[in-house]
Amino acid sequence: MKRAVFVAAAAVCAACGSTAASPSNAGSGSTPSGSTPAATSAKLKVHVSGAGRVVSAPAGLDCRDDCGATFASSAMVVLTAMADAGHAFSGFGGACSGMVCVLTLSGDTQVSATFTPNPAPPRVFTVTVDVSGNGIGRVKSSPAGLDCKTGKCTASFVEGTKLSLGAMPDPLSKTAFAGDCQGPDCEVTVARDLAVHVAFDQLHYQAVDLGVVDGGWWSTGGFITRRSRIVVGAWGGSNPRAFFWDGAMSDFNFGFASVSIAGYADGGLVAGNYAVTMPGTFRPFRLKDGVLRDLDLLPGGSNGMATRMNSRGTVVGYVNIGYGAGCRAVMWHGTAPMDLGVLEIGVALASAWGVNESDVAVGLASAPHVAGYEAVIFRGNGVIQELGTLGGLRGQANAINNHELVVGVSDVQPQSDVMHGFFAVDGKLIDIGTPPGMTNSYLGALNDVGVAVGGVGPDPRVGWRGIVATRERLVELSGLVDNTSATIGMASDIDEAGNIVATAANRAVLLVPQR
Fold first, then answer.
1. Between 490 and which of 140, 321, 455, 482 could a Cys-Cys bridge form, CB atoms 3.0 to 4.6 Å apart?
2. Could you give all domains of the chain from N- to C-terminal order, each with its CATH number?
3. Intra-chain end-to-end CA distance of the chain, in Å
């Protein structure tokens, strides 16, 4: 009975002691009509392509393929991609893009991650260059890496490199490639180890006998034009006459008993000298358009000599002044003389022996501090640049090229007849020395490449022997001419292509380089 009363009382309290619940809060856990419960979690799926893994923070994901995990709704999730060895992470896709993935989850989400293999490292090959020969040269590569002068050198290049090897022989050498390069040039694509042989060989020559004019028995080389390979010189029997050679020899037919040529320019312009009545004296002349005119002398001049002419027709030489006043260096434009000046007052000695295309002349001038005469450059308007001597009392500059490189000859000691050829570079004389067995050398002409010619001696059989030289070395011409065993005598001129005018066995010869 008591339990039944208690239950009935409880029922009465429930009905009368509280307010009836409204529909909006009618009990815990009830759902309003027409609404959806708020999500409390979200699922994140990750798809992995390639060799790598993706992990999440907070923890939950560690994927190498397809995987997923559930995170609280509105949670911030950071995905980190980690590539395996030999691979690289390429980027996220799906709900993330780029290399970083930070998500605030608001619902189920999908992300992809891609890993790709690293490219294979490029293969590297070794290129070996072997330099040999009796010449001189240098090999350089493009792209840089090889720079060889003698022996072997190596460098490594990536597969596929387009490699060019440039061989740079000195002016007295020629080049030949062999091995993995053939011919005069070397351009290859590197696909394996390469071995290239480069020979720098001494330049040789073929001699062209210029002959003699009918009635003569000898000829000697003189001058050659800069580019057209026309040679002028002397020929004769008892008296010297002048010849012209352009593939065949002919006499100039000046009509003088004795004549010498100082230069020839394309177009028929000639400078030279003819003998006058007084023995040992000459008068300079110029021949233009078939008309021969004497070159005027300086006031007081008794005779003169033209020594050289450039291709523009400018002539240099000297004029002897009467009554013991010495001689003066002269430049002729047309037929009018220009005094190039002297270094000392009074009895003076000056003469010009070479001229370049800019009308800068070289020669010699006496100077009190030399106690003789020295090599000089005549720059015009009386300006004289002193070059000095090699230690002796006499020096003479014989030629100057268009880069103002000068060659000449000088005594090497006071009171000595020993003389050496020289190059003058930046105002300083470089002694070329002599070959074994010779005491004297001489340089008389050069081209714009810097190759000079002259002679060494004395040879008891032939006197002077012809030479070709650069600032770095001197080479005798005898033995370098493949089609004759005759001794090559003094070399008198050289053109821009390296053709050399010389004399051999009483004949003027043209030595043609074989490159």
1. 455
2. 41-117 (2.60.40), 124-202 (2.60.40.1140), 205-514 (2.130.10.10)
3. 140
